[in-house]
Amino acid sequence: MFDAQIFTPSVQGPIHVHVPPAGGALRRFRPPPPPVGNAAEIERAARALRDAEIYDGDSFLALTGDKRFVWSASGASFLMFGVWGRAWIAMGGPVGRADEFDEVAARFAEAARAARAWPAYYAVGADAAARLAAHGFVAEKVGERAVVDLRAFTISGKDKKDIRNALNRADKAGCAFEMRPPGPLGDMEPALRRVSDAWLAMKAGSEKAFSLGRFDPDYLSRFSLAVARRQGEPVAFANIWIKDDLVTMDLMRFADEGPGGGMDYLFTKLLLWAQAEGYARVDFGLAPLAGLDRQGRPSTVARLGAFIYSRGGRFYSFEGLRAYKDKFNPVWEPAYIAAPNRWRAGAAAVAVAALTGGGVRNLLRNSRKGLAAPGRRRQPFARIIGRA
């Protein structure tokens, strides 16, 4: 609250008027967003996922327990999202019936406007980005998704020698691979938790959310698990979402870089298993902020991407993630942020970092250093992302 002094010709001296701060008043009258989905709504999303005609490699994140939902009138389609300030960020595009894409997108935008918020989408593919353009959204590339075509995958040839050597070392060390069907973790939970805790300790980090899965026994019980063992003990694992001809890897944890304990063994064995089972593709997920054009006159999101690349933390190495997945010769499919305008696209990227966890704090710690586009003076972080 503050007192404003107003001078008038007919009154001697100032009149003191008590004026409430506008931000607080607006917040009091802003309708709240829908609550985070409860157990019943998550089960509803799981049923919609099973029957979905449209989905992407991240659609399973509807089951993490941290998403809010907008549904079609039929209840067969949904869109999941998170809230950060006035930003409503959808994780991927609509999921469910193909003929309900536009309905769900319109309902999401209407609900955001009713709450005096603004909507955006994270990690949508090219087709969804094109359809969202009809709803007034502009798309900015935010990364690339690594999808391996199993019909062409092989570990033969000189360029795969390192992979074959890693498999041979693992076999000699007594390593084995298994696919565990969905269900309670049971007696395996303590061993898998030890692997997960060791991985977190190596990364000096903590569990993330929103755009990433996390170690949660109830969440993991919904998926098949790819497990690597050394001398009978789990040393690496990943939960796997399977839909139609697509196999998607979500959470991946390993205890050490020894035989069978690193990513090479688990990734390769998973690819060979999926190939033998007749699946067509394996989605290794998004390499965020990879493949962005940071030359010439970069976009807001590209400049933010360069900022994170150059000053990013230790928890997820974006450059290393891209370089690592490249060894399996994936097709790199573009992923986009779709927002009402390009300034909001930059703000949406920051919101995703905040929702995922820890990203904004790390960025702000380095914000005084700024980021300079080629040929331009360095700019403060607030100028890079624009106003929300």
UniProtKB/TrEMBL annotation:
Signal peptide: none annotated. Residues 56-338 form the Phosphatidylglycerol lysyltransferase C-terminal domain. It is found in: Cell membrane. Keywords: Cell membrane, Membrane, Transmembrane, Transmembrane helix. This is Uncharacterized conserved protein. InterPro entries: Acyl_CoA_acyltransferase (IPR016181), LPG_synthase_C (IPR024320), PG_lysyltransferase (IPR051211). It is a multi-pass membrane protein. GO terms for molecular function: aminoacyltransferase activity. The keyword Ribosomal protein does not apply. One of its GO terms (cellular component) is plasma membrane. The keyword Thylakoid does not apply. Its main location: membrane. One of its GO terms (biological process) is phospholipid homeostasis. Pfam families: LPG_synthase_C (PF09924).
